Amino acid sequence: MALTSGTKLGPYEILSRVGAGGMGEVYRARDMRLERTVALKILPTTFAGDADRLQRFEHEARILSALNHPNLLAIHDVGAQNGTHYLVSEFLEGQTLREKMSSDPLPQRRVIEYALEIARGLAAAHEKGIVHRDLKPDNIFLTKDGRLKILDFGLAKQSFMASTVSEQSETMGAPTPTTPGTVLGTVGYMSPEQVRGQPLDVRSDLFSFGAILYEMIAGKRAFKNRDWSGSFLHPGGGGFCEVLPPFARPPRSKPHPRIPGSPVS
């Protein structure tokens, strides 16, 4: 059941509902101690008895608390009240990178700025051995004051994780951070090794970053084929070349009569 305005959880007062994701509902709230606006991610009561989901929720809290970087979402607190578990983070106003790209084409200068900030945020997480595993435009937030934040480390890991592919939905879920047998990530941004259930490291995030960078530059997704995962699962079938749309090839230059070795059309 959704919380109503005025509901209090510890020192926090619910103001309004922001949205919901696979890991819980998000609310705008007021920290009555420090007189500031915060975001509360709340694990729904209907799932509070699910040990796997609760473990993932607590796992995200631990992951976020270990990170302190301007390009990563800052966590303030975690708590529980009457069976309701919550995570408190900074409240961001703005839009996701997905929303930004869908409204207007990104100028080259902006693409470079965003790419650098994403790279810095990832580097900070990777230095602590943390792999995001669900990096995508929807998890990159652009604040009104011009900052970029990487969100949702709910699927992050600090150790080996095996997985297998399911075609049930675009975004795959996972029972726990350490239980093999389920895909973690989003179709179109997962690395080949993630799709195949192979060991993952920071290079998997770099693959996802590359897919995002391609999308920012080209204005379209790198992988659009619904059967794209088949090429990754069976690399002999063509792999990247089978599913990655190429950039438009520029026309070859005509040979210049006075320049030896100039290109021949």
The termini sit apart by: 67 Å
In the predicted model, the low-confidence regions spanning at least 5 consecutive residues are 159-169, 171-181, 235-250
Over all CA atoms, what is the radius of gyration? 21 Å
Name of the level-1 CATH class of the largest domain: Mainly Alpha
The total domain count is: 2
Describe, in plain words, how this protein is organized in 3D:
By secondary structure, the chain is an alpha+beta fold. It folds into two domains: 9-90, Phosphorylase Kinase, domain 1, CATH 3.30.200.20; 94-243, Transferase(Phosphotransferase) domain 1 (Transferase(Phosphotransferase), domain 1, Orthogonal Bundle). The chain is built from seven helices and eleven strands. The protein has helices spanning 51-65, 97-103, 108-127, 192-196, 202-218, 228-233, 239-243; strands spanning 8-9, 12-21, 24-31, 36-42, 75-81, 84-90, 94-96, 140-143, 148-150, 171-172, 185-186. The strands form three sheets. Strands 1-2-3-4-6-5 form a six-stranded antiparallel beta sheet, with helices on one face. Helix 3 packs antiparallel against helix 5 (202-218). The chain is globular. The termini are far apart. Residues 159-169, 171-181 and 235-250 have low confidence and may be disordered.
Give the helix/strand layout.
Elements: E1 8-9, E2 12-21, E3 24-31, E4 36-42, H1 51-65, E5 75-81, E6 84-90, E7 94-96, H2 97-103, H3 108-127, E8 140-143, E9 148-150, E10 171-172, E11 185-186, H4 192-196, H5 202-218, H6 228-233, H7 239-243
Antiparallel strand pairs: 1-2, 2-3, 3-4, 4-6, 5-6, 7-8, 8-9, 10-11
Helix pairs in contact: 3-5
